[in-house]
Every structure is written in structure tokens, then in C-alpha cells.
Design brief:
- This protein is mostly beta strands and about 290 residues long.
- It has a single domain, classed as Beta-galactosidase, Chain A, domain 5 (Distorted Sandwich), CATH 2.70.98.10.
- Helix content is about 0%, strand content about 45%.
- It is built from one helix and 22 strands.
- A nine-stranded antiparallel sheet has the order 7-8-9-10-22-18-17-14-15, with no helix packed on it. Strands 12, 13, 16, 19 and 20 form a five-stranded antiparallel sheet that branches.
- A hairpin with a 4-residue loop joins strand 2 and strand 3.
Length: about 290
């Protein structure tokens, strides 16, 4: 387990999956990260090189078929620590024989966590170390504890977008594929009250948002958080049955749709990276 800290917060991270394990606010004496449990054993998996499900759990590239499970392999890999200071740490993995058998690209992937006062920055760095065009997705999956403050309940909180949104949610099939037609969610609104029923049919998948930030807030406490995600075109929001948390998931990529062709280069939201090029995207979380 590795730790970084500021005067305001202390963050713990595991080298397995470069996964956040704790976000503790020193002044508020509050833990902001879901602490895992029978409902969901993860806390904040890193999603790479795919997000969500593939149709039939497979894809085609250059005439060859490959299999990848939900959210890809990075969350189960052991990362090496490349660099660490008091308030930042960088974890790295790279392609090896095992990854190449399911994902035929030579990559170097780093996750850097940095704390500034009461804000955590999560920075993703993807390098194409091969000679061919590389296709990938990348995203976060942090689970924030809700209720946050003692004496409040789950339903006391709401998601507050920084701009008024008129948008639908893209429902998922039982296999985790994105359906072809959205269903209404917000109509020129900034506020989505949290209710367990929102997640009865799996995650809320959002596309084409005007907002680049969303907060978890309650009128019954001054404590909450704000996720800023300006580099991510998709957003997932999720909670599993019985879990006292909300995942706010900035995504550069998305699960396959019902009518996906199965060809990696035709996958919705897929990122292309030239040989020897680097892709960088970051999101921040402010805790209060």
C-alpha cells in the first residue's frame, strides 16, 4: 500500500490495478471512498484498454479475433511505482506476453495521482510504443461513499451538474451493451436526486453532456465533492444493489452497442494513437 498526502487529505493506493483504497479528509475526519464490501469488492478500478463490455466479449483486429472481459485487464495487473513524492505517485504497466495475447499493441500506460490541498488529480498517460496505429479506451471508476456525513441518508444527496442538461440515459442490455435509443433523464435541469431505483437497470450512461463537472451534495451537510472531467466525452454513474456509494466514471470510450460490428477500429468512442505518440487525459476531485 502506498500513501500520499497534503495538509487536507491523505490518499492510499494499491499497486494492484493502481487502485485507490482510501481518500481521507483530515480536517473533516471523513472517508470519501467506498471501502468495499460484499455488495461490490472494488473501490476505484482503472479501465484500460476497453470500457464496459464487448459484444460477445470479443473484438476483431486485422482479421484476428481477440477476447477481453469487461473493463479490460489493467485493473487486475500489478503496477510498478515509477516515481513518488509526498503528494504524488506514478504507477506504470507495459505490454507483455500475456497482454499481447488479448490486445495486440505495444503500450506503456501510467496513472499519476497528485494531491493539491483538498483536490486529487488523476492523470492517465498512454504511450504507443509500437509501429502501428493503436486503438484503446481509458476511464475511471471511483466509488464515493454515500451518505458522506454522519446523520444523513443516501436520498439526502443529489448529483449537481455545472450546466443545465437536457439529456437521456443510454440503457444497457442484460449483457452490458448500450441500447440504440436513450430514455429521458434530465430536461433543462442541473439536479438529479439520488435514489437507489436509478440504478435498478444498471449504470446511467451519458453522452454529449454540456457539463464538465458534477458534484455530490446535500442540503443537510456542507460536505461533498466535485468531479471535474473536461477531457472525457462520456460519463457513467453507477451503484450496485445494497451498496452505499455512487461511482462517477469519466470515460474516453464506451461499451459496445447492440449493433456493434465487432471491429476494433469501428468501435464507438475508440481512441486512435499514432506510433510513438502519447495520449494524456486527467480528471480532478475536490473534497469539501
Amino acid at each position: 500500500m502506498y500513501s500520499i498526502s497534503s495538509n487536507s487529505i491523505t490518499v492510499q493506493i494499491s499497486s494492484k490495478g493502481a487502485e485507490l483504497q482510501s481518500i481521507y479528509h483530515i480536517q473533516n475526519q471523513l472517508e470519501y471512498l467506498w471501502q468495499a464490501g460484499a455488495e461490490w469488492p472494488k473501490k476505484s478500478p482503472v479501465l484500460f484498454p476497453i470500457i464496459g463490455e464487448l459484444k460477445d466479449k470479443k473484438y476483431n483486429y486485422n482479421g484476428k479475433e481477440y477476447n477481453l472481459s469487461r473493463h479490460g485487464f489493467a485493473r487486475e495487473m500489478e503496477f510498478a511505482v515509477k516515481e513518488q513524492t509526498k503528494d504524488s505517485i506514478t504507477f506504470t504497466i507495459h505490454a507483455d506476453e500475456k497482454t499481447l495475447s488479448v490486445y495486440p499493441f505495444n503500450f506503456v500506460f501510467s496513472v499519476k495521482y497528485t494531491i493539491t490541498d483538498n483536490t486529487l488529480t488523476v492523470n492517465y498517460n498512454v504511450q504507443n510504443a509500437g509501429n502501428d496505429l493503436m486503438y484503446f479506451s481509458i476511464g475511471g471508476h471511483p466509488a464515493f461513499k454515500v451518505p458522506i456525513a454522519e446523520g444523513t441518508s443516501y436520498e439526502d444527496y443529489a448529483l449537481i451538474f455545472d450546466k443545465a442538461e437536457t439529456t437521456g440515459r443510454w440503457p444497457l442490455t442484460s449483457d452490458g451493451l448500450v441500447k440504440n435509443t436513450p430514455i429521458p433523464l434530465l430536461e433543462n435541469e442541473t439536479t438529479l436526486p439520488l435514489q437507489k431505483e436509478l440504478f435498478a437497470a444498471d449504470a446511467i450512461v451519458l453522452k454529449d453532456l454540456q457539463s464538465t463537472a458534477v458534484s455530490i451534495k446535500s442540503s443537510k451537510t456542507t460536505h461533498g465533492l466535485t468531479v471535474n472531467f473536461p477531457h472525457f466525452p462520456y460519463l457513467g454513474i453507477w451503484e450496485t444493489k445494497g451498496g452505499d456509494f455512487v461511482c462517477i466514471e469519466p470515460w474516453c470510450g464506451i461499451a459496445d452497442s447492440e449493433n456493434a460490428s465487432g471491429k476494433l477500429e469501428e468501435k464507438e468512442g475508440i481512441n486512435e494513437l499514432e506510433a510513438n505518440a502519447t495520449f494524456i487525459a486527467a480528471f480532478t476531485v475536490e473534497f469539501f
